[in-house]
Design a protein that fits this description.
- The chain contains 10 helices and 7 strands.
- The protein is 40% helix and 18% strand.
- Helix 7 packs antiparallel against helix 10 and helix 9 runs antiparallel to helix 10.
- It is an alpha/beta fold.
């Protein structure tokens, strides 16, 4: 996931460089894991990569569009493990130029990955005109909930009848005014949507839901690990506010959902 304004802080980048180089995510950890044995989030993210590959049936013939790819490690590792080809887009140019391309080179997938600077709500025509086996948006759609119709229009334009769309995203279960602490981290100028809001938006965009799962129980352990590390570096959590997100997930005021979708009424 990526936001150029919220993830440019030096202490945040150093935290992630130590916990899970190349990632900006908490990975996937079984709820019954002894977290005292989890020193970082590298394996958790590797487990998430493999879970995505298995869930979506990604293979060497897949052509994938990754929207808001962040530092690019999900893109790179999926390409490395499956042999698939990727176009990955992020609005943060330093991530594309200094991180994504570096990881692609180090993992030997430069010829499989095409990283572009761009907005997921305003994709270039050459990207929108292509069709993909998979369109991914991993933990970033909530950054554009204010413009979600435009985002979904862009997603739909990249689909044919066989494209699998996979999104994971936050939803809220309480009024936005009750999530002040949660938003101290993201600093959003607009509320995130509820699940019902999102499902209506999918329907309006002619994207049919084929599967939806609340994966919060597998995400919360990662927040426990990251809180431990945040408090070592920033005891008062003035800058490293990730625990606010974990607290909201544990309280059930927000959830982390995955959506699998397919496009309806495409010409192909």
């Amino acid at each position: 996931m990526s936001s150029s304004s919220n993830y440019s802080n030096k202490i945040m980048n150093e935290l992630w460089d130590d916990l899970a180089p190349g990632y900006f995510n908490y990975g996937r950890i079984s709820p019954d894991t002894d977290l005292d044995t989890v020193e970082n989030l590298v394996q958790a993210n590797e487990d998430m990569v493999q879970w995505i590959i298995n869930k979506l049936g990604i293979n060497k013939d897949s052509v994938i569009l990754d929207l808001a790819c962040g530092k690019g490690m999900y893109t790179v590792r999926i390409a490395q493990l499956t042999g698939c080809r990727f176009i990955a887009v992020d609005i943060n140019e330093p991530y594309i130029e200094n991180e994504c391309k570096k990881w692609a080179k180090e993992h030997g997938v430069v010829d499989q990955c095409d990283f572009r600077v761009g907005s997921m709500t305003d994709l270039p025509d050459e990207i929108r005109s292509m069709k993909y086996t998979h369109v991914l948006c991993l933990g970033a759609m909530f950054y554009v909930h204010e413009h979600i119709d435009k985002f979904l229009e862009n997603v739909y334009s990249c689909c044919d009848k066989n494209t699998k769309v996979f999104i994971w995203d936050f939803v809220r279960h309480v009024p936005w005014s009750d999530l002040v602490d949660f938003n101290k981290h993201f600093k959003l100028a607009f509320p995130i949507h509820t699940k019902d809001d999102i499902l209506e938006k999918f329907k309006s965009a002619q994207l049919e839901l084929t599967d939806c799962e609340d994966v919060s129980p597998y995400i919360v352990p990662g927040y426990v690990v990251i809180e431990r590390e945040c408090r070592k570096r920033d005891p008062d959590l003035k800058i490293l506010t990730y625990p606010n997100i974990g607290n909201a997930l544990k309280a059930g005021t927000v959830s982390y959902l995955t959506y699998c979708l397919k496009a309806l009424n495409t010409s192909d």
